[in-house]
Write a structure and sequence with these properties.
This protein is α+β, with helices and mostly antiparallel strands. The protein has 19 helices and 26 strands. The strands form 6 sheets. Strands 14, 15, 18, 19, 20, 21 and 22 form a 7-stranded antiparallel beta sheet that branches.
Length: about 700
Amino acid sequence: MAQTAASLTASQTPARGDNRKGLGAIWLEFLGSMNLAISLLVVVSIASVIGTVLPQNQAYTDYLIQFGPFWFEVFRVLNLYNVYSAWWFMAIMGFLVLSTTVCVSRHTPAVWREITRYRTHVREQSLRALSQHRQWHTADDVARVHEVAQAAFEGHGFRVRQETRGQATIIAGMKGRATRLGYIFTHVAVVVIALGALADGNIHLKIQEMLGEFVVETRDLPVSQIPQQSWLAAESGSFRANVTIPEGSFTNVAFLQVRDGYLVQSLPFQIDVEDFHIDHYPNGMPKSYSSDLVIRDPALEQPLRQTISVNHPLTYRGHTIYQASFTDGGTLLDLTAHPLTGRGQAQTLSTRVFEDAPLQVGGASRTLEMDDFQFFNVNRDPRAVERVGAPDEFKNVGPSFNYTLRDEAGQGREFHSYMAPVEIEGHWYYLHGTRNASDQPFEYLHIPADERASMGTFMAFYQALHNRDRVDAASARAAERLLTQMGVANPDLGTRVAGTANEMIATLLTEGFGRVNADLEARVAGAARPAMLLDFSRAVLQGTMFEIYREIKAEQTGVALNRIQLGGDEQRFFEDAMNAVSAVADYGSPVLLELDHFNHRQATGLQITRAPGKNVVYAGCALLVLGVFLLFYVSQRRVWAMITPREDGGTDLLVAGTNQRRPELFEAEFNTLTDALGRHLRQHNQGPK
């Protein structure tokens, strides 16, 4: 456009006494100037780069986390989160339309004259001044030379016009005049593309907002409870909205993200999701996913059924439906809540993903917010790394679920638990992760799985540690056994240490082994033999827990306690159980949730767009391509033949041509034309002189 403006601009000097005319001419000159065109196009290009690099139309909270409070506010004021609908971008596009329209309207008449005028009013001196010219002196009459020259021009694709001036006849030929149309096409294409962008820029939405005709909703409400001030009518303009639809459900609305809230965009049809499909790579990453959709519209005789996938959308009534994402669709979960407070019994409950459920634990009220469910959890098998040259191997460790447990004050803590035990270094554990904030990694509690691949043994062991009577009896047996092994006959020592077992285990359950050791060291600091007493106390604590574990195994197997024999696997389980008991103190929850059953339900994430200006932009792009092609690959060439009779009855023929864009190529074309013309003349004459 800038090149065109530079080549076509022809300013007019206003009359001194006409100020109004002078001001208008100045404005026209400014609007059609090359500097303005370049400035506007540069700003549009920069804005397009920003709109490409910076994700558009995201939730404000995402931008705030990414950029921080200061830059978030700066970008918000500049409307960089929605560049293509920003007021300044729309203003630039409108000014670009105006500027280019002025340029086209001013210079189209001159271009039209250029492609329709054959320039028959040329002088012999002007033709001889051209670098490409040749002259013949022939004995043929004027009519014959005229016939040969015109046939040669037309044979090489030139359109010709002729004019007689005095005794001389001028034949003017022109070819490639469409290159001048390229200037017009490129300018008009810019106007068309800008108009299409304005049509899809939601100008009507901004006007409605300025007039207070709608209110951006910021609350998380069911669709039925969203007020009408936050609804947009169907086919009211362009939009890019999103909606999540579970399998077996339907919708006739989508949600348009607007700053820190949203608007409900009505659709003129209903979208049903019959099924959702997903395939995975061996490493668990999604390979492909698709949705079986049904479009129901009163205008259709039969519902429209089509499967969409990534890069294969569905277009209906000007609305394009893209497969954008997927998520859980409200999977039904059957859970067992194991209390970690020592009070109450395990309870069962059923809930769904994205639903909240009240939970009573240890006399306190909690709110269980089920956040997500993952059907696949694929991890790399660490054993494959140990085998030299072995390919990567991946293992699915089964379903998991995320939830938030919120207390009465509204404070929440996130958890992530696996349904099945996970093998770690040859042993199996139930993993229960926890974290205080979403930007932190999960720290996992490892609960050993028993021979039945359940948490039953550990939970029975953990609950027994809260029973004071059992702890007293177990600690007495442990102290007696230790004194016997040491050959020490001091029952008072055993009684004193055993009497503190309840206190040590209570501290262990609430604060872990670290706090127990600190208390023991403080307690024996003034004793005569503190090291021996400290080791003895630790041994009694471990022995007490071991005795309780033996009691649990006796209850499970039905074998008398004095006949229980524990092997290596039971010893390893006991060690893992002790570590888990200590780690529970840092778990930060009064309850441990175990997933028993689930009914998996997926949901598809659709992006629905309506762009009435899209076809306008496509037409403008096609026109731009055509214009650029004409500008770069078509060259306007002009040739002239001046035929003048001589006094001796012969004829002088002067042929000249020009092409300002590609003179080196035109030289070869001109030589071919004149060589052919010369050979034809030599068939009837003596040749050029």
